[in-house]
Structures are given as C-alpha cells and as structure tokens.
Amino acid sequence: RLAGPRHHADLRGPTTCALITDAEKQAIHARLGPDPLRPGDDGAHAWQRVARSRTTIAALLLDQKVIAGVGNVYRAEVLFRHGIDPYLPGRDLTRAQWDAIWADLVSLMREGVRHNRIDTVRPEHLPEAMGRPPRVDDHGGEVYVYRRAADHCHICGSEIRTAGLAARNLFWCPGCQPPTARRP
Questions:
Q1: What are phi and psi of 115, to 5 degrees?
Q2: Higher pLDDT, 103 or 3
Q3: Cβ contacts of 14 within 8 Å, gap of 6 or more
Q4: Residue 89, beta-bridge partner list
Q5: Domains of the chain (ranges plus CATH)?
Q6: Which of 84, 90, 79, 88 is nearest to 143 (CA)?
Q7: Coil, strand or helix: which one is 85?
Q8: Could you tell me the sign of the dihedral formed by the alpha carbons of 134, 104, 97, 57, in that order?
Q9: How many other C-beta atoms can be found within 10 angstroms of the C-beta atom of residue 63?
Q10: pLDDT digits (tens, 9 = 90+) for 83-101
Q11: Whole-angstrom distance, CA of residue 67 vs CA of residue 129
C-alpha cells in the first residue's frame, strides 16, 4: 500500500515495488528480451531461446528474458489465434509458427496501446458478426479464451479450459488448440 496524508493506493499485480536508480533501471532493461512494442526489435533473438527450450511455449511467452511485455492475456489469445497447444515445448514450435506469433503480437499490442484496451477477436468473430452478446467483464475487450473458462468457444463450441502454468491462469480451447503428444 502506498499511503499519503489524505490518500492511499493498494498495489495490485506486482510482487515487488521498489525505488531504484537509473543505473538499476538500465540493468533491468538489459535483461529483458525483445519487446513487440519496441521499434527495431524483432523476434529473432527470442526465437533463438524458444527453439532450444523444453519449456512450454505458454511459459516462454511470459518469461520477460525471452520476450518482454506479453502478459497473460496476450499469451492466451495469441496461442489461440494460431491454434497452438500452450503445452507445446518451445523447441517443437516451427520457425514459421514463431514468426506468425511475433507478427501477431506486434499488431495486437500496438492496437492495445492505441485503443487502451485488449481486443484480440478478428472482425468476423465480433459479437455483431456472429450474432452473440458482447463480453461482459471488468477487464474489457473482446477475447477468444482469456477469463472464459467453462464458456463455449466462439469458433468450435468446445468448453474453454483453464489451468495454472508459470504462476498464472492459462486459458485455451482444446478443440482449436489440439494437444500435442508431449502434454503433461
């Protein structure tokens, strides 16, 4: 909690809050992987780490040393949009799949910044196009799987699943993101 003489704010989300020097900030930034929002960054450096890893692609997308800034919503949604099993080991992902994920993250995250909300649903799957009610959630935005556990997939009708992975809630559609043989 940050407290002042007349106001206070409860921090939500971060596990640590600390005042740091400019040098400490630069050291933290130096440890970050490429950022889809940073001009000039591309996914090649991240691909090198992903391609060698036995860690699941869902966990790798949240590892800030691999790729910066993705977060839980974009993780779930980009994997859905590309039909990728979240439990697929990074080393089993193809370069073409990675390049598509990176390009999609660049586009989705830029739109998120521009509109100040996360919308990941393609135009043909929006409520107006599908004749379905819009999403009602305090997080906002139209999404395919994020925070939709036990709801039915907009595309295939399968029940959206959830599980813990990398200390976060993972959401996916088992119909649109079929499991790989290596799933735990």
A1: -100, -5
A2: 103
A3: none
A4: 56
A5: 2-172 (1.10.8.50)
A6: 79
A7: coil
A8: negative
A9: 18
A10: 999 999 999 999 999 999 9
A11: 33
- Summarize pLDDT for 59-86 with one digit per residue, the tens: 999 999 999 999 999 999 999 999 999 9
In this predicted model, what pLDDT tens digit does every residue of 27-38 receive, in sequence order? 988 899 999 999
Backbone angles phi, psi at 118, to 5 degrees: -100, 110
The answer to whether 146 and 76 are in contact (CB under 8 A) is yes
3-state secondary structure at position 113 = helix
Distance CA 139, CA 72 (A): 12
CB 73 within 8 A of CB 146: yes
**3-state DSSP call for residue 118?**
coil
Q: Could you count the other beta carbons within 10 Å of the beta carbon of residue 125?
A: 14
Query: Is the CA virtual torsion 177, 45, 52, 169 positive or negative?
Result: negative
Q: Which two tokens stand for residue 36?
A: 């889809």
Tokens of residue 56, six digits: 């699941």
